[in-house]
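Budget justification aside, the reviewers requested a transparent look at the raw inputs and outputs of the sequence design task funded under Objective 1. We therefore reproduce one unedited record. The lines immediately below are the structure tokens for a 381-residue chain.
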């Protein structure tokens, strides 16, 4: 009887161990995907738009079910606010490393993406920005830096070419906000404009906190340029354009993607109609999955897309595509899988060159009519 009890106990213990082992093998695996953008401050609405796109992708993937290496994987979006501040960006990056995220979607701007990139590189974590456009971001030799938008080395020249061709600009004043994004975009614009024979009548620098531009604008008015190129975000380009209009300046205001938002119309008021701006990527209406994505987004969040939501949405799917090809959520294996990406999503086909930049970028040019953003040209690079 004693032997029988011991045998029964042995069988029970063995079954419990086997059950626990099987459960551990097939237990749900929770995987954190980092997301960083300015969620407070003047660019918070753009950051929230981008966060919404990433969150929509995560929720869809979880709903459809993701199985890797025999385990069901549940994604969690680890969303952080860097307030568009380089120092905060590095602190947030370290937090995400400590949170053991599998990859990061972000940061929102070049000025935050660049300083954070070394932290992710040192940790071996893929960083895929939906919106950082400064060329330097992917030219640091890191194997972990990627982006799903064209660079300022493409955007600046495209804007300059449109200005000289369609707008017949021959004299231009240039202003930037001293940020990595604004200064970089202005530099690329100037190089191309000069090569096309345009005279740069002046080059001024402000800051991304400036709200009164009347001194600079008064000086520029006396230089009678055909256009004024401003490298900066909509929070400053809007007031700049509005004050230019109040001073009777007729020159077109040229800007990049940081200013090319629906928000600009309210910031610049009637002067928005004098703005011509560029965006890296095809316009939403020209994206292969743009119309369908817009319907999903508006049904979920009950507000219009600002600018970057389609890019952050695809960015999440691109990371998951790398996981699927690696059949793993291991950081090193994701890093190894990323160079072979060939993903067809909302924004079109995504393939990366040796730096982590898009092989097939595109630039769209917009203006504003009665306060509404209108696509006027698109150039595939």
């Amino acid at each position: 009887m004693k032997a029988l009890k011991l045998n029964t106990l042995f069988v029970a213990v063995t079954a419990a161990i086997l059950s626990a082992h099987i459960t551990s093998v097939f237990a749900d695996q929770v995987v954190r995907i980092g997301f960083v953008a300015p969620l407070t401050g003047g660019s918070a609405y753009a950051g929230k738009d981008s966060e919404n796109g990433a969150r929509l992708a995560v929720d869809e993937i979880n709903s459809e079910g993701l199985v890797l290496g025999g385990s069901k994987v549940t994604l969690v979006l680890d969303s952080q606010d860097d307030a568009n501040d380089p120092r905060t960006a590095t602190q947030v990056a370290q937090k995400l490393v400590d949170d053991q995220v599998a990859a990061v979607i972000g940061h929102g701007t070049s000025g935050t993406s660049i300083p954070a990139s070394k932290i992710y590189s040192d940790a071996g974590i893929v960083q895929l920005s939906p919106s950082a456009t400064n060329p330097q971001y992917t030219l640091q030799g890191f194997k972990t830096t990627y982006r799903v938008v064209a660079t300022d080395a493409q955007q600046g020249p495209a804007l300059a070419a449109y200005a000289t061709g369609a707008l017949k600009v021959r004299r231009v004043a240039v202003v930037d906000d001293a940020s990595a994004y604004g200064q970089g975009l202005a530099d690329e614009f100037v190089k191309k404009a000069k090569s096309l024979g345009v005279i740069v009548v002046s080059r001024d620098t402000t800051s991304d906190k400036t709200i009164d531009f009347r001194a600079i604008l008064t000086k520029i008015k006396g230089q009678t340029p055909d256009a004024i190129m401003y490298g900066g975000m909509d929070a400053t380009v809007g007031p700049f354009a509005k004050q230019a209009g109040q001073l009777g300046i007729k020159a077109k205001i040229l800007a990049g993607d940081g200013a090319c938002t629906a928000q600009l119309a309210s910031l610049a008021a009637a002067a928005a109609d004098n703005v011509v701006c560029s965006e890296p990527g095809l316009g939403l209406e020209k994206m292969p999955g743009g119309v369908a994505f817009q319907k999903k987004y508006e049904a979920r969040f009950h507000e219009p897309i600002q600018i970057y939501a389609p890019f952050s949405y695809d960015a999440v799917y691109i990371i998951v595509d790398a996981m699927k090809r690696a059949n793993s959520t291991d950081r090193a294996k994701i890093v190894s899988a990323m160079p072979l990406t060939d993903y067809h999503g909302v924004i079109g086909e995504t393939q990366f060159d040796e730096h982590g930049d898009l092989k097939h970028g595109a630039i769209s040019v917009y203006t504003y009519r009665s306060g509404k953003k209108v696509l006027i040209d698109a150039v595939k690079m």
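The longest helix spans residues 2-26. The CA atoms of residues 93 and 178 lie 23 Å apart. Computational costs for records of this kind are itemized in the attached budget.
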